[in-house]
Amino acid sequence: MAIKFEQVNFEYPSFDGTNFSALKDINLEIAEKGEFITLIGETGSGKSTLVQHMNALIRPTTGSVTIYGIKIEKDTKKKGKVKLNPLRQRVGLVFQFPEYQLFEETVLKDIIFGPKNFGVKESVAIERAKQVIKHVGLDEEYLKRSPFNLSGGEKKRVSIAGILAMEPDILVLDEPTSGLDPKGRDDLLKLFMGIHNDLNKTVIIITHDMNTVYKYASRVLVMNEGHLVYDGLPQELFSKENIKSWNLDIPDIITITRQLEDKLDVNFDSQPHTIQELFELVKEVI
Ligand SMILES: Nc1ncnc2c1ncn2[C@@H]1O[C@H](COP(=O)(O)OP(=O)(O)O)[C@@H](O)[C@H]1O
Ligand SMILES: [Mg+2]
């Protein structure tokens, strides 16, 4: 098991001493290979806090997170005995807000920062930068630009490129497609799907887009008020009554299918995942 949460609680400290409990009794296992996981839940439910535990960016208040055999607990020192750098290379985390990740004067320097930090030679890192900038849908010319003069979507892509350049084993992306136009979103999802399929890597994506969840995920995690309330297949999730109390939307394809079933007064044998599959089912009954 690559990542294992055991009874993890996390509290954000506050000045008046009333600490805020953001994660409550989380137990969770993530395999190194083969998973395409979406993590969902309303804003403030603890998603970002949860993923920041996956590469020891923050440590549990109680309980432990074991990452590639290294147990991280509250008193695990940042430096010293436990080396966290290798973990940060193996579990690549793209932040929700790319501004937190970009700080160099050019996009190139930003992208090669991570690999160089983990011991990759500069010339090799530059070659990687030229590859990954294209993978995220930007032209090589962007490497010369300042990350601060880019649009929100472009910054997001550059921050993703920086993590890809580290060639992590597990890729964790905090809302990578928010704020992108539909084509940009689909292109990036195809990129993540490609990384997952071609290299058999585990990819974890935080998203609010239920269509993405339904179309791509092999496993879905739902956070609600600091609790992990669902860990399973997307198909089963959307047939649950609870999704209303968790404030989750229903994927468009499910809504359309239900409306058609009502209109046509039929019950389809299966729930289609695409418009094409729905079309085939409709053809059988009319
Ligand atoms: N640095 C912080 N200090 C105090 N509270 C925080 C901090 N970051 C997040 N929180 C609180 O913790 C809860 C979970 O936040 P977060 O993990 O960012 O949720 P999500 O990513 O699901 O929107 C929220 O109520 C948020 O206000
Ligand atoms: Mg968040």
Please give a handful of descriptors for the protein shown.
alpha/beta; 6-stranded mixed β-sheet; Rossmann fold; binds magnesium ion; 286 residues; 10 helices; 4-stranded antiparallel β-sheet; binds adenosine-5'-diphosphate; 2 domains
Task: Report on this structure.
This protein is of the alpha/beta class and 286 residues long. The chain has two domains: 175 residues, P-loop containing nucleotide triphosphate hydrolases (Rossmann fold, 3-Layer(aba) Sandwich), CATH 3.40.50; 36 residues, no CATH class. It is built from ten helices and ten strands. α4 packs across α5 and α9 packs parallel to α10. The protein is globular and about 65 Å long. The termini are far apart. Magnesium ion binds next to α1.
Question: What is the H/E order?
Answer: EEEHEEHEHHHEHEHEEHHH
Total DSSP helices: 10
CATH topology of the largest domain: Rossmann fold
Number of DSSP strands?
Answer: 10
CATH architecture of the largest domain: 3-Layer(aba) Sandwich
Radius of gyration (Å): 21 Å
Domains counted in the coordinates: how many? Answer: 2
List all distinct small molecules, including ions and cofactors, that are bound in this structure.
adenosine-5'-diphosphate, magnesium ion
Strand order of the largest sheet: 6-7-8-3-9-10
| Major beta-sheet overview | 6 strands, mixed
Q: What are the SSEs and their pairings?
A:
Elements: E1 3-12, E2 20-30, E3 36-40, H1 47-52, E4 62-67, E5 70-72, H2 85-90, E6 91-94, H3 107-117, H4 122-135, H5 152-164, E7 170-174, H6 182-199, E8 202-206, H7 210-216, E9 219-224, E10 227-232, H8 234-237, H9 252-264, H10 275-285
